[in-house]
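Pipeline run #58 for the internal structure catalog. This entry was flagged by the ingest filter as a single-chain record with no existing model, so it goes straight to prediction. Upstream metadata was stripped on purpose; only the residue string is passed forward. Reviewer on rotation: M.T. Logging verbosity set to normal.
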Amino acid sequence: MKFGWLICAPLLAAVVPAAVLADDPKDPAMRGSAARQRDHEIIRQLNLQQLAHVRERDARYAEGWRAWRGSEDHADAASNYSAQSRAHERDRADYAEERARYDRQVAAWRRAVQACRAGDYFACD
C-alpha cells in the first residue's frame, strides 16, 4: 500500500496545479473582454461538437435497434423470453413444492429425534 502512494503522489502533484488553475477568475490572460469572448466561443464550439457526436452516436444506436426489431432474431428473442419466463415460473413452483416436502421431512425427523430422546426406541431407527 505504501508503494502505491509513492507512485501516485508525483502524478497527483503534477495534475492538481493544472486542475486548480483551469478556471481561474483572476487569470491575467482573461482580463480583456476579447479574450473572454474568444474563450466563450471556443467552449461553445466544443459543446456543439460534442452535441453533434452524441446525436450521431444515438442515431447509429437507434438504427441498430430498428434493424434488430425488424429481424427474425427479435421474434426469436421474444419467443425465447416467453419460453424462459414460463420455465422460470415452473422452476419456482417446483422449488416451492420441493421446499415444502423438505420442511415436512425435517419436521418428521425432529419429531423422531425428540421421541427417541424421550425413550421411544422404535423412533430411533
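catalog note: Residues 47 and 53 are 10 Å apart (CA to CA).
catalog note: Helices lie at 2-20, 33-70, 72-117.
status: ready for reviewer M.T.
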